[in-house]
Design goal:
2 domains, alpha+beta, two-stranded antiparallel sheet, five-stranded mixed beta sheet, globular, 46% helix, 8 helices, Nonspecific Lipid-transfer Protein, Chain A, Four Helix Bundle (Hemerythrin (Met), subunit A)
Length: 274
Amino acid sequence: MSLHPTLQPYADAWSHSVDAISELVTPLVEGEWNRRTPCPGWSVRDVVSHVIGLDCEMLGDPRPIHTLPRDLYHVRNEHQRYMEMQVDARRHHTAPEMTSELEYTIIRRNRQLRNESRDPGHLVRGPLGTEVTLERAMRNRAFDVWVHEQDLRAALGQPGNLDSPGALVVRDELLSALPKVVAEDARAPRSSAVVFDVSGPVEFLRTVRVDMGGRGTLETAPALGPAATITLDWETYVRLACGRVTADAVADRVKAEGDPQLIAAILHKFAVTL
């Protein structure tokens, strides 16, 4: 394989998750494609349509020429409109049409990855006419596909793969967002620290320290006398950070100690996906 070593973990994570999605949805009967998922506004069919659509864009396929309905309550900004286009264009596709297109897209993407020789810094098409590096694009796909695999598992009652390669990509991406959540969004006090203790299939202990300038940094060392300590399991962490649940809905699965106002502010701003 000619894939750059930096990109290999993202290719492996994408492949593992998209194959799992294919296994999950291939046996479904028509009615099961309409089940609601935790992803706001999207059914099983919609989630699979999104996965197909974005991988087609990675392949360089043109986006569908399609007009969105005006009554989609979950579409509130341009980014969401962009993502909805691939979904709404497939809303009336049958189960066989969905599974066959998914299978064909996976075959094409695997072929693309086998032949991929571009540098990680090579610029490729991103959402809304932007350009991103190939590394960022592949990391985004690995993140996105694993999160949507979990959406499908929740909708279909088939939990699993919480510690798969994609889960580790998601962990790193969500951790990279924590300093902003704590320091900028929740406005934690300067010269303070907030500890996150996460258990389960993916476990970690991280501290966000806020300096005198109000800038947050992520550390692996625990803090003495933190302003707040938030303890929760990995699945709950993901669901909160990806906007699948509110803090109130999972209050029984989150243990928090310290400044109650700061804790509430952090949990209120915890979702980092659009």
